[in-house]
Amino acid sequence: MIGQSSGRPDAGPAIDPRGSGMDRELSWSVIEAERLRLAALLESLDAQDWDAPSLCSGWRVRDVAAHVALAPQPPSIAGMLVEGARARGRFHILNHDLAVRLANRPGVDLVAELRDYAGSRRLPAVTNYRNILFDALVHAQDIALPLGVDHPMPVEAARAGAQRVWTMGWPFWARRRLGSYRLVATDIDWTTGEGAVVEGPVSALLLLLTGRTALLDQLTGPGAAQLRRTDA
Protein backbone atom coordinates (compact mmCIF):
# COMPACT_ATOMS: atom_id res chain seq x y z
CA MET A 1 0.00 0.00 0.00
CA ILE A 2 1.31 3.44 -0.87
CA GLY A 3 0.91 6.98 0.40
CA GLN A 4 2.63 9.36 -1.99
CA SER A 5 1.02 12.36 -3.66
CA SER A 6 0.08 11.94 -7.30
CA GLY A 7 0.27 15.68 -8.02
CA ARG A 8 -2.35 18.15 -9.17
CA PRO A 9 -3.11 19.70 -12.55
CA ASP A 10 -1.96 23.27 -13.16
CA ALA A 11 -5.08 25.04 -14.40
CA GLY A 12 -6.31 28.51 -13.59
CA PRO A 13 -9.93 29.48 -13.00
CA ALA A 14 -12.41 30.25 -15.74
CA ILE A 15 -15.83 31.20 -14.47
CA ASP A 16 -18.90 29.95 -16.28
CA PRO A 17 -21.41 32.82 -16.60
CA ARG A 18 -24.25 30.34 -16.06
CA GLY A 19 -23.00 29.77 -12.53
CA SER A 20 -21.62 26.24 -12.72
CA GLY A 21 -18.15 27.42 -11.65
CA MET A 22 -15.94 26.59 -14.66
CA ASP A 23 -16.47 26.87 -18.39
CA ARG A 24 -16.84 23.86 -20.68
CA GLU A 25 -13.30 23.89 -22.07
CA LEU A 26 -11.60 24.14 -18.70
CA SER A 27 -13.91 21.47 -17.29
CA TRP A 28 -12.94 19.04 -20.05
CA SER A 29 -9.24 19.80 -19.60
CA VAL A 30 -9.54 19.02 -15.88
CA ILE A 31 -11.51 15.83 -16.60
CA GLU A 32 -8.70 14.68 -18.90
CA ALA A 33 -6.08 15.55 -16.30
CA GLU A 34 -7.99 13.74 -13.55
CA ARG A 35 -8.37 10.58 -15.65
CA LEU A 36 -4.61 10.60 -16.26
CA ARG A 37 -3.87 11.22 -12.58
CA LEU A 38 -6.13 8.31 -11.63
CA ALA A 39 -4.34 6.08 -14.16
CA ALA A 40 -1.01 7.01 -12.52
CA LEU A 41 -2.41 6.29 -9.07
CA LEU A 42 -3.74 2.89 -10.14
CA GLU A 43 -0.49 1.99 -11.88
CA SER A 44 1.35 2.41 -8.57
CA LEU A 45 -0.92 0.10 -6.57
CA ASP A 46 0.05 -3.31 -5.27
CA ALA A 47 -1.90 -6.26 -6.66
CA GLN A 48 -3.94 -6.72 -3.47
CA ASP A 49 -4.98 -3.06 -3.47
CA TRP A 50 -7.02 -3.56 -6.62
CA ASP A 51 -9.40 -5.84 -4.72
CA ALA A 52 -9.53 -3.69 -1.58
CA PRO A 53 -12.88 -2.12 -0.61
CA SER A 54 -13.44 1.42 -1.88
CA LEU A 55 -15.46 4.09 -0.07
CA CYS A 56 -18.49 2.87 -2.07
CA SER A 57 -20.19 0.01 -0.26
CA GLY A 58 -19.90 -3.20 -2.27
CA TRP A 59 -17.45 -1.71 -4.78
CA ARG A 60 -13.81 -2.79 -4.98
CA VAL A 61 -11.07 -0.41 -6.10
CA ARG A 62 -11.08 -2.12 -9.51
CA ASP A 63 -14.85 -1.64 -9.85
CA VAL A 64 -14.62 2.11 -9.22
CA ALA A 65 -11.74 2.36 -11.68
CA ALA A 66 -13.82 0.51 -14.27
CA HIS A 67 -16.75 2.87 -13.69
CA VAL A 68 -14.55 5.89 -14.41
CA ALA A 69 -13.07 4.18 -17.47
CA LEU A 70 -16.57 3.42 -18.79
CA ALA A 71 -17.78 7.04 -18.77
CA PRO A 72 -16.28 7.87 -22.19
CA GLN A 73 -17.32 4.43 -23.54
CA PRO A 74 -21.11 4.59 -23.11
CA PRO A 75 -23.29 1.70 -24.29
CA SER A 76 -25.69 2.31 -27.13
CA ILE A 77 -29.28 3.23 -26.35
CA ALA A 78 -30.28 -0.37 -27.14
CA GLY A 79 -27.52 -1.62 -24.86
CA MET A 80 -28.70 0.66 -22.06
CA LEU A 81 -32.24 -0.66 -22.42
CA VAL A 82 -30.96 -4.22 -22.11
CA GLU A 83 -28.86 -3.30 -19.07
CA GLY A 84 -31.79 -1.42 -17.54
CA ALA A 85 -34.03 -4.44 -17.91
CA ARG A 86 -31.35 -6.69 -16.41
CA ALA A 87 -31.09 -4.32 -13.43
CA ARG A 88 -34.91 -4.11 -13.16
CA GLY A 89 -34.79 -0.36 -13.64
CA ARG A 90 -32.50 0.27 -10.66
CA PHE A 91 -29.87 2.71 -11.85
CA HIS A 92 -27.37 2.00 -9.05
CA ILE A 93 -27.52 -1.73 -9.84
CA LEU A 94 -26.99 -1.03 -13.54
CA ASN A 95 -23.96 1.15 -12.76
CA HIS A 96 -22.47 -1.45 -10.43
CA ASP A 97 -23.01 -4.41 -12.73
CA LEU A 98 -21.53 -2.66 -15.78
CA ALA A 99 -18.43 -1.72 -13.79
CA VAL A 100 -17.96 -5.19 -12.30
CA ARG A 101 -18.24 -6.85 -15.70
CA LEU A 102 -15.56 -4.58 -17.14
CA ALA A 103 -13.35 -4.94 -14.05
CA ASN A 104 -13.56 -8.75 -14.20
CA ARG A 105 -13.00 -9.07 -17.94
CA PRO A 106 -9.95 -11.31 -18.56
CA GLY A 107 -6.96 -9.32 -19.68
CA VAL A 108 -8.60 -5.91 -19.18
CA ASP A 109 -6.09 -3.10 -18.56
CA LEU A 110 -7.99 -0.36 -16.79
CA VAL A 111 -4.92 1.88 -16.59
CA ALA A 112 -4.53 1.73 -20.38
CA GLU A 113 -8.26 2.37 -20.91
CA LEU A 114 -8.18 5.44 -18.69
CA ARG A 115 -5.21 6.80 -20.61
CA ASP A 116 -6.57 5.91 -24.04
CA TYR A 117 -9.89 7.66 -23.37
CA ALA A 118 -8.63 10.45 -21.11
CA GLY A 119 -9.29 13.16 -23.69
CA SER A 120 -12.56 11.72 -24.98
CA ARG A 121 -15.64 13.93 -24.70
CA ARG A 122 -18.12 11.17 -25.33
CA LEU A 123 -20.85 11.05 -22.68
CA PRO A 124 -23.57 8.65 -21.58
CA ALA A 125 -26.92 10.02 -22.73
CA VAL A 126 -28.12 10.62 -19.17
CA THR A 127 -25.33 12.98 -18.06
CA ASN A 128 -23.22 16.04 -18.96
CA TYR A 129 -19.69 17.34 -18.51
CA ARG A 130 -20.51 19.03 -15.18
CA ASN A 131 -21.45 15.66 -13.72
CA ILE A 132 -18.43 13.92 -15.24
CA LEU A 133 -16.19 16.53 -13.61
CA PHE A 134 -17.26 15.88 -10.04
CA ASP A 135 -17.64 12.16 -10.77
CA ALA A 136 -13.95 11.92 -11.67
CA LEU A 137 -12.93 13.93 -8.60
CA VAL A 138 -15.04 11.99 -6.11
CA HIS A 139 -14.33 8.51 -7.45
CA ALA A 140 -10.60 9.14 -7.28
CA GLN A 141 -11.09 9.75 -3.55
CA ASP A 142 -13.22 6.60 -3.28
CA ILE A 143 -10.05 4.76 -4.31
CA ALA A 144 -7.34 6.88 -2.70
CA LEU A 145 -8.68 7.44 0.80
CA PRO A 146 -9.18 3.80 1.85
CA LEU A 147 -5.67 3.03 0.59
CA GLY A 148 -4.07 5.93 2.44
CA VAL A 149 -3.02 7.66 -0.78
CA ASP A 150 -2.68 11.45 -0.84
CA HIS A 151 -4.46 12.48 -4.04
CA PRO A 152 -5.46 16.16 -3.68
CA MET A 153 -8.31 17.68 -5.67
CA PRO A 154 -7.82 20.86 -7.72
CA VAL A 155 -9.80 23.37 -5.67
CA GLU A 156 -11.45 25.24 -8.57
CA ALA A 157 -12.80 21.97 -9.92
CA ALA A 158 -13.91 20.86 -6.46
CA ARG A 159 -15.82 24.12 -6.04
CA ALA A 160 -17.55 23.63 -9.39
CA GLY A 161 -18.39 20.06 -8.34
CA ALA A 162 -19.76 21.17 -4.98
CA GLN A 163 -21.98 23.79 -6.60
CA ARG A 164 -23.25 21.28 -9.16
CA VAL A 165 -24.08 18.63 -6.55
CA TRP A 166 -25.81 21.19 -4.31
CA THR A 167 -28.17 22.25 -7.11
CA MET A 168 -28.84 18.97 -8.94
CA GLY A 169 -31.17 16.93 -6.70
CA TRP A 170 -31.04 13.22 -7.63
CA PRO A 171 -29.10 11.08 -6.81
CA PHE A 172 -27.52 12.84 -3.81
CA TRP A 173 -30.36 15.16 -2.70
CA ALA A 174 -27.67 17.26 -1.00
CA ARG A 175 -29.84 20.31 -0.42
CA ARG A 176 -32.52 18.12 1.18
CA ARG A 177 -30.04 16.23 3.39
CA LEU A 178 -27.93 19.23 4.38
CA GLY A 179 -30.44 22.05 4.13
CA SER A 180 -30.13 22.90 7.84
CA TYR A 181 -26.38 23.57 7.56
CA ARG A 182 -24.31 26.41 6.18
CA LEU A 183 -21.38 24.98 4.26
CA VAL A 184 -18.30 27.21 4.08
CA ALA A 185 -15.11 26.38 2.16
CA THR A 186 -11.93 27.56 3.87
CA ASP A 187 -9.56 27.20 0.90
CA ILE A 188 -11.64 28.92 -1.80
CA ASP A 189 -14.57 31.33 -1.97
CA TRP A 190 -17.66 29.09 -1.77
CA THR A 191 -20.55 28.90 0.65
CA THR A 192 -24.11 27.68 0.53
CA GLY A 193 -27.05 26.86 2.79
CA GLU A 194 -28.35 28.32 6.03
CA GLY A 195 -27.99 27.02 9.57
CA ALA A 196 -25.27 25.48 11.71
CA VAL A 197 -21.87 26.19 10.15
CA VAL A 198 -19.80 23.38 8.63
CA GLU A 199 -16.46 24.63 7.34
CA GLY A 200 -13.38 23.05 5.87
CA PRO A 201 -11.60 22.30 2.58
CA VAL A 202 -13.90 22.30 -0.42
CA SER A 203 -12.77 18.74 -1.22
CA ALA A 204 -14.13 17.54 2.14
CA LEU A 205 -17.37 19.43 1.53
CA LEU A 206 -17.74 17.86 -1.92
CA LEU A 207 -17.40 14.39 -0.42
CA LEU A 208 -19.97 15.28 2.24
CA LEU A 209 -22.37 16.54 -0.43
CA THR A 210 -22.07 13.22 -2.29
CA GLY A 211 -22.85 11.21 0.84
CA ARG A 212 -19.31 10.37 1.93
CA THR A 213 -18.20 10.94 5.52
CA ALA A 214 -14.56 9.87 5.16
CA LEU A 215 -13.27 13.44 5.61
CA LEU A 216 -15.62 14.55 8.38
CA ASP A 217 -12.57 14.98 10.63
CA GLN A 218 -11.41 17.81 8.35
CA LEU A 219 -14.62 19.78 8.94
CA THR A 220 -15.17 22.12 11.87
CA GLY A 221 -17.95 24.25 13.32
CA PRO A 222 -21.17 23.50 15.22
CA GLY A 223 -22.68 21.79 12.20
CA ALA A 224 -19.68 19.50 11.78
CA ALA A 225 -20.04 18.39 15.40
CA GLN A 226 -23.70 17.58 14.75
CA LEU A 227 -22.80 15.60 11.65
CA ARG A 228 -20.20 13.59 13.53
CA ARG A 229 -22.75 12.70 16.21
CA THR A 230 -25.18 11.60 13.51
CA ASP A 231 -22.50 9.53 11.77
CA ALA A 232 -21.32 7.88 15.02
Keywords:
50% helix, Nonspecific Lipid-transfer Protein, Chain A, mainly alpha, 3 strands, Four Helix Bundle (Hemerythrin (Met), subunit A), disordered N terminus, 3-stranded mixed sheet, 232 residues
List the helices and strands and how they pair.
Blueprint: H1 24-43, H2 61-70, H3 77-86, H4 91-103, H5 110-116, H6 129-147, H7 155-168, H8 174-177, E1 181-185, E2 191-192, E3 196-200, H9 202-209, H10 222-231
Parallel strand pairs: 1-3
Antiparallel strand pairs: 1-2
Under CATH, the topology of the largest domain is which? Four Helix Bundle (Hemerythrin (Met), subunit A)
Compute the average pLDDT.
Answer: 86
Instruction: Quote the distance from N terminus to C terminus.
Output: 27 Å
* Main sheet characteristics: 3 strands, mixed
Numbering strands along the chain, what is their spatial order in the largest sheet?
2-1-3
Describe the protein's architecture and organization.
The chain is mainly α and 232 residues long. It has 2 domains: 20-151, Four Helix Bundle (Hemerythrin (Met), subunit A) (Up-down Bundle), CATH 1.20.120; 153-232, Nonspecific Lipid-transfer Protein, Chain A (2-Layer Sandwich). The chain is 50% helix and 5% strand. It contains 10 helices and 3 strands; from the N terminus they run ααααααααβββαα. Strands 2-1-3 form a 3-stranded mixed beta sheet. The longest helix has 20 residues, at 24-43. The two termini are 27 Å apart. The model is unreliable at 1-20 (pLDDT under 50).
